[in-house]
Design a protein that fits this description.
The protein folds into 2 domains: 163 residues, 3-Layer(aba) Sandwich (D-Maltodextrin-Binding Protein, domain 2), CATH 3.40.190; 124 residues, Bacterial extracellular solute-binding protein, family 7 (D-Maltodextrin-Binding Protein, domain 2), CATH 3.40.190. The N and C termini lie far apart (82 Å). The relative contact order is 0.16. Strand 6, helix 7 and strand 7 form a beta-alpha-beta unit. The strands form 2 sheets. Strands 7-6-8-5-9-11 form a 6-stranded mixed sheet. Strands 2-1-3-10-4 form a 5-stranded mixed sheet, sandwiched between helices. The chain is of the alpha/beta class. It is 48% helix and 19% strand. The protein is globular.
Length: 329
């Protein structure tokens, strides 16, 4: 065989081997991780920290590509994507599991949790374990973590809320079904308004206020048209970090260990950032002219409890979960 033909033959054989055998054995495995938070917010920073830790702990054998700010879809779409394996991982509020399983809608009903410490105890205890087992079995998602903190939610608006009477007929913007059901049951008038339309809605009186975490009031300039920050403390929340169950089960034991360690360390980082930034945002809102109103937490939480059977009707089994959550001390 001539030298030129031999070279061509060798190149052809090399191409065939690559096609037959695929990538080299030492090629990095890439996991696609999408979430709904802006990259500069605590969860966005924690996601990048998680990716950094995974690369370090696996010596580059696993690379996590992070897609922030709903680049891979909204919460419902990303939950379904991970379930079906269209994306590998996601982080979002624990209540988003309600998109997959009605039993978890209760996680975002107002006044289900008494404090951030309370929800942390719930997700790290038997209820959290049950949630993880249920989601893995029914929805094909393995939960690496359920304890990445979210900032507490309050109601900011044009009118003050000191107690239950002030909430009667109050047009409050709520983005998802659980707070809509909860506030409606205790006399408020929930309105469905896109977040980027809240500024104008408050200006024009279409809404009296919005239930949001404190960073949203500032980042969306809502504090400019909302005179009062009603410190309702109605929703304490955490986020889960989930991975497609099939992907998880395909990992080597040492890689599973690395991902779990990275999830725990990135979670602690997220929680530290959230705590620090929440205090900072409260200061910004006060400096920006918002008047802080102390709302009667006990009165509103008792009103929710008195109406919990009605609130839970659309989601069979969630009243029992509410009762179990209240028993956690």
């Amino acid at each position: 065989m001539a030298t030129g033909n031999r070279k061509i033959f060798m190149v052809f054989m090399a191409i065939c081997l690559v096609l037959l055998w695929g990538l080299p054995a030492n090629a990095a495995r890439v996991l696609k991780y999408g979430h709904n938070t802006k990259q500069d917010q605590p969860t966005g920073q924690a996601a990048l920290k998680f990716a950094e830790l995974v690369k370090e702990k696996t010596k580059g054998e696993i690379i996590v590509e992070v897609f922030p700010a709903n680049q891979l879809g909204n919460n419902r779409q990303m939950a379904e994507n991970v379930k079906m394996g269209a994306q590998d991982m996601t982080t979002m509020g624990l209540a988003a599991l309600g998109y997959l399983n009605d039993n978890f809608m209760m996680m975002q009903v107002p006044y289900v949790f008494r404090s951030q410490e309370h929800i942390q105890k719930v997700v790290k205890g038997p209820i959290g374990k049950e949630i993880a087992e249920n989601i893995a079995k029914k929805d094909n998602i393995f939960l690496l973590a359920q304890d990445w903190d979210r900032m507490v939610r309050h109601i900011g608006g044009r009118k003050p809320i000191k107690g239950l009477e002030d909430l009667k007929g109050y047009k409050v913007r709520a983005g998802v079904l659980p707070p809509i059901a909860g506030f409606k049951a205790i006399g408020a008038t929930p309105v469905k308004i896109e977040l980027n339309e809240m500024y104008v809605a408050l200006q024009q009186g279409v809404a009296d206020g919005a239930e949001l975490p404190v960073d949203y009031f500032y980042e969306y300039s809502i504090h400019e048209v909302a005179k009062f920050l009603n410190l309702t403390y109605h929703t304490f929340g955490t986020q889960f970090l989930g991975i497609n169950k099939g992907v998880w089960e395909s990992l080597k034991p040492e890689h599973k260990k690395a991902l779990q360690e990275a999830a725990d360390e990135a979670g602690a980082y997220n929680n530290k950032l959230s705590s620090e930034l929440e205090n900072g945002y409260l200061k910004k809102l006060k400096d920006g002219g918002m008047e802080f109103i102390k709302t009667d937490f006990d009165e509103l939480s008792k009103a929710i409890e008195a109406n919990i059977s009605e609130i839970a009707k659309p989601w069979p089994g969630t009243e029992a979960m509410y009762r179990r959550i209240q028993e956690v001390k």
